[in-house]
Amino acid sequence: MKSIRRPVVTTTSTLGRLLLLMIVSIACGALVAGLFTPATALAATVANNSINMFNQLPETLDVDPPAQTTKVLASDGSVIARFYAEDRHDVTLANMSPYIKNGIVAIEDARFYQHGGIDPTGILRAVVATVQGGREGASTITQQYVNNVIIQNLVSKGDTSQVKLGAQKTVGDKLKEMRMAIAMEKKYSKDQILQGYLNLIYFGNGAYGIQAAAKLYFNTDAKNLTLPQAAALAGVVNSPSVYDPVAHPDNVVTRRNEVLGKMLAQKKITQKQYGAAVKATLTVHLNKPSQGCVAAAMAPYFCDYVQQLVLNDPAFGATQDERSKFLYQGGLTIKTTLDPKLQQVAQDQVNATISATDPLQRGAAVVSVQPGTGKVLTMAQNTVYNPASKPGNYMGNFALPLNDAKGNSLHGAGGFQIGSTFKPIVYAEWLNSGHSMMTMVNGAVRDYPVGYNWKNSCGKTTGSYDPASGTKLLPNDDPNHYYPMTALEGLYNSINTITFQTAAALDFCNIQKMATAAGLADGATNKPYDVSKISNLIGSENVAPINMATMMATFASGGVRCDPIALTSITDNTGKSYPVPGANCQQTISKDVANGVKYTLQQMLVRGSGYLIPLNDKATAFAKTGTTDGNTNTWTIGANSGISTASWFGSYKGIGPFWVNQDITINGHYWVGVDGANLAGTQWAGVMNAAAGIPAYAAQPLEKPPATMLATTAPLVVGVNDPKGTDAPVQPVPPAPNQAPATTKPGSHKKK
Q1: Structural domains of the chain sorted by starting position, each given as residue range(s) with its CATH number in brackets
Q2: Under the phi-then-psi rule, with left for phi > 0, alpha for psi from -120 to 50, and beta for the rest, what region is 8?
Q3: What is the mean pLDDT of residues 385-412?
């Protein structure tokens, strides 16, 4: 058989590996010598050539700040949630245990404080180990730091495909890292390099940097690590998978004791310390961190709101990727408006209304804003913020519209039909147009045929309540309120027919403008509230609870509308501040009109449809209830000068027979029909009562409207069944003998 010739030397043979390392060693040795000896003193040509070749390699390396953990804080500084791509918390060298500093040097680079970035002795030792068939690393801490910085920079830029690890690196890659290590030693002190290294390296199980590792494995800070703990973590760095304190504790103990032996040999610890440390039991107190809104300590839906505000704002990056990097890697401190004490009350209220896992699968939500500032104080709902498919888990935010004004997703539910809570807008325009709240209006008018002469100077209003056109007559909640009454009484008792008669005397375009001035918008499109359909006069359109709270806050602040805001400041880990959206507070409604609305809606609480709402202080507050067809959506919205709250209970999974809230039992209580003053009203009162005890939200007395709004005027109605809509005075029609006036018959009312 013919013999097969084999190459004498290959790169995989022992001799090949030896020659390769020798080539690198000669170059590196010459370079190291060059750090201390002028090149002219090196007689060998190979040395000069090595230096020239090495000097042509790039030496600059930008040490960008590594990815840091972002914290979202409530108004009192408590942590709501954390966001991170890598769990890392930078600390100074002074805030690290001396044991971890000495331990990492002892095991990774004993001559760290003597060499100039690369270690010739270490390289020669690696050569010998290779010749003998073994393996020993030659990289210094500085070289490892350079390698980690290169990887971190590539990851930060999204160039993960360019990352090279271990055997993937060429001789050129290693030489370039050596060159950069030498340059780094000239630019930074040893302690700066060690600090950067310990804050950057990976300790396994998602922990980057010594502070995160100390928290993860021992639930302590880096500065408080004991000798056995620090030695264990120093040993993990070599191979976080092999020396995993959770998966392979025995390996960690062996490696820890090796670190301790090195520390003893280098006189970093005493024999007594060594003896005690090697006998110590490895006790891991796993404190695995969690991040994002799913793990929020409170208010997960508010957390998501904050998250979307950052991800949607070009001020934090031109692209979605840049904004995501800003949030997850920027080490931000995001301070928010959330009041944690009130938030807990709001959360307790919605949880008590109906459990997330109740088979009925109904929703409950509360959102509060501060009048005059727009600060969002609470945002609670009864579902569980979790993407897993499970009853009660729901990622949509009941409080928010689908999108923001620019069309960016807010993860909102898109709002709900608001029922009679729209009536204050019609009433506000009634007052704004110069009408008195004491004008008698005919509540008996129920027929509005197709072609009725509605006035709308910016469009066309359609719809009908007329059996002749196939629709029913306009209904009230019960048969006892079809008679003339004042506009004031019509609002606080929430009478549909009064709302329609007042609207018939107004320009619908101005009603729409009043809605916008108060802060209302369509929950799906964020366009102005639609008044082109007469059914929207009594709330057939979807509006988000946060907009309903804004509406009442506008009235509460004397007509000053503020956009809702959740952010008060954003700073990064260098202390740099970033702009946050302002509330854009403006006087959009006259103070007199706002006072007129508040005056009337305060009476809703004491003798109208909100009479049974359990609010402690009804003298300084005002509110409006609302209920839609089938009691599917129910509301109480209201405010005082200190806080405005929108409370909703209803069916968020659909509409139709299954989702009506009639003939229903909730928490053991049977309801013929759930009205706005019931569950939503109780939630609302719970938050408002709690806020009354907080000085920052103290309520001031309500201001009276001007005398002209309270003046008695001649009865004014729109002609009954008059398609032209001409104004015609009529005589008041008294209630039937067996019917008490609404002012003497308090109660809660459902509005269609």
Answers
A1: 14-55 (no CATH), 87-279 (1.10.3810.10)
A2: alpha
A3: 95
